[in-house]
Amino acid sequence: MTTLGPAAARRAVLAAQGFADARPSGAVTRRHVARTVERLRLLQLDSVNVAVRAHYMPLYSRLGPYEQALVDDAAWSHSARRPRLLVEYWAHEASLLPVADRALLLSGAKRAGWWRHYGELARRNPALVEDVLAVVKEYGPVGAGELERLLGGDTGRPRPPGVSWWERSDLKRICEYLFGTGELTTGARRHFQRLYDLPERVLPPEVLAAPPVAPDDAARRLVLGAARALGVATEPDLRDYYRLAPDRSRAAVAELVDAGSLEEVAVAGWRGPAYRVPGARVPRRIEGRALLSPFDPLVWERERTERIFGFRYRIEIYVPERKREYGYYVFPFLLDGELVGRVDLKADRAAGVLRVPGAFAEPGADGLRVVSELVGALREMAGWLGLDGVVPGERGDLAAPLARALVAPRGRAPASG
Q: Which residue in 99, 38, 41 sits closest to 242, CA to CA?
């Protein structure tokens, strides 16, 4: 069995996640977006917009500034000339994923999510299910609010023949249930609101025509995709990527090892075996910098992040402000293969600035170099978001040097102290 040291394992993880590759030399294109999603397998969605929507940031962290419309076009528009590349479904959490992977997650390989609890409501009210599908067919893509008005009678638009009035809460539950079972999908997004549509109007014909995938085969394909995305991973790491059931994941890993599609390795300091795809890249060094969303696949599994980087990370959105250690929406800062700091970020769109209420160095990090690189990363991110500048705050050991560096002429290192 191959044994990897912690540093080699870390480099393998970063390479698999795309941080060993140079950014595109020119403008980022649809092809770059497609390749990056193919590598990561999914982009997690989240409603928090304090800095930038979660699904846009992983691409920026790897590719640099790009037009967010590239993601919107890939995920929420479809034509014969430019087929839809991404589709929404429950993966790690609510996510955008390659259109072909939706069938794997609907195969039965993945446990039904929280929406399964609405199955009893659907069984008790088959007419409600039929009415929702009829209205979506007639008017889709349509949001839950519009569905409520159409099915509740509070609209001037005619309802399809035979459609009844229904309770608002039941309508929303049925929409989520039908999305979970695959009878509905997201046709578009408006102000981040999901607009439901029928899969046959959203997915490319070849995806719709593909034969069903057996659950065991789907599990193996999902685990293998997770292994390629993670680089080196324990079985629980692989399982967590798509939130598979433990027994299903363990069986898939064992079958992939037997088939030679995965190899077992030992990583010094890790408990239990790890796995990687044979021939997975282990570069000699990692260079470059990146700000990472709290929902980036490199850091979203907190125990794994601590194991690989020695970086203890928690989201403090739901922690009372006075009890927060680092801030409301904190971005880890990756520099030359190490997580060397963290910054609390807020895009103040009214004022046109990127605010940094807190900035913190990790123990042992070179604070002056972290600040020098962080200034460039923050200015670049502000420009990408269409903001005019960066405004530092007062919290954290990097706050004062960051403030000095932001007002110093560009190219001059900040003063120490």
A: 41
Distance CA 157, CA 136 (A): 13
CB 187, CB 141: distance < 8 Å: yes
pLDDT mean over 181-187: 95
In 3D space, the residue among 83, 91, 77, 103 whose CA is nearest the CA of residue 210 turns out to be 103
Tens digits of residue pLDDT in 244-268: 999 999 999 999 999 999 999 999 9
Q: What is the pLDDT of residue 158?
A: 57
Beta bridge partners of 89: 95
pTM listed for this prediction: 0.92
Bridging pattern class, strands 2-4 and 263-267:
parallel
C-alpha to C-alpha distances, 12 to 37, 83, 274, 278, nearest whole angstrom = 18, 33, 12, 12
pLDDT for res 226: 98
pLDDT tens digits for 21-48?
A: 999 999 999 999 999 999 999 999 998 9
256 touches 239 (CB < 8 A): no
pLDDT at 336 over 90: yes
Q: Which residue matches tokens 């599994």?
A: 301
The per-residue pLDDT for 161 is 59
Burial of 269 (0-12, 13-18, 19+ CB in 10 A): exposed
Mean pLDDT, residues 150-161: 59
pLDDT in tens, 65-78: 999 999 999 999 87
